[in-house]
Amino acid sequence: MKERKRLAIIGAGNIGSAIANGLLDAGVYQPDELTLTRKKLQLLDSFREKGCRTGQDNLAAIDASDIILIAVEPQQFDNLMNEIGDRFRDGSKLIISVVSGVSIRQIKSKVNEKTPVVRAMPNTAIAVRESMTCIAARENDREGLDAARQIFDTVGLSLVIAEEQMTAATALGACGIAFFLRAIRAASQGGIEIGFHAHDALRIAAQTAKGAAVLLQKMGKHPEYEVDNVTTPRGCTISGLNQMEHEGFSSAMIKGIVVSAEKAAKLYQNE
Q1: Among 11, 220, 223, 241, who pairs with 72 as Cys (CB 3.0-4.6 Å)?
Q2: What SS3 class is residue 101?
Q3: Residue 145 contacts residue 137 (beta carbons within 8 Å)
Q4: How many Cβ atoms are within 10 Å of 117's Cβ, its own excluded?
């Protein structure tokens, strides 16, 4: 397999910058192997100071790179591809797209059909190498899929899924990190109400949430199995859980994920 090393992140906003930070922290890329572009160039100063190449010239960034990670907003996708599409005429560069709602077919229609394209949906925890990244590609782009996994496995966990599941991955994995952050905030607010200072309450809530997640990953059990290990007859845990369910905790989370998926499916409409 041809080694693909130099990486350009086109549209290095929140998620693009998080990806860059994660890759640099993991040592997967040296700063001089990364090129980042965005319109507000001053927002990339921290990367320039680390030794990364930064700029506003997307064409130059693509010419200097082997892997092109596209991280613009869906509404910016068409204009970007009108600008850069010709740079993929020989099919030698790998495109990884984290643009919500844009299909592989739609991307390939803007470039050479032979260009390998991978869709990826990480979340912002990639900045601390804890992303859950779902990736998808066509069968004949297996080499590109392997290259993408080599990138994303170093900054968290990756899962290969069918492309039709990418909208669901956006809601559960990418939007989902905000849902869990909001749950942690709510827990910390409860902690303040029962007597902790704000910073202590947040520290306890965040570490408890982390512990719960690692417990599931390490033990491999269903969440309710671990819940049963905490609850006792007439105990305080079951009382709190039942009150949360009476207030619609689980239902609200499920509904939020479903609504986010419905919204994600409509972010890019260009059929």
Answers
A1: 11
A2: coil
A3: yes
A4: 26
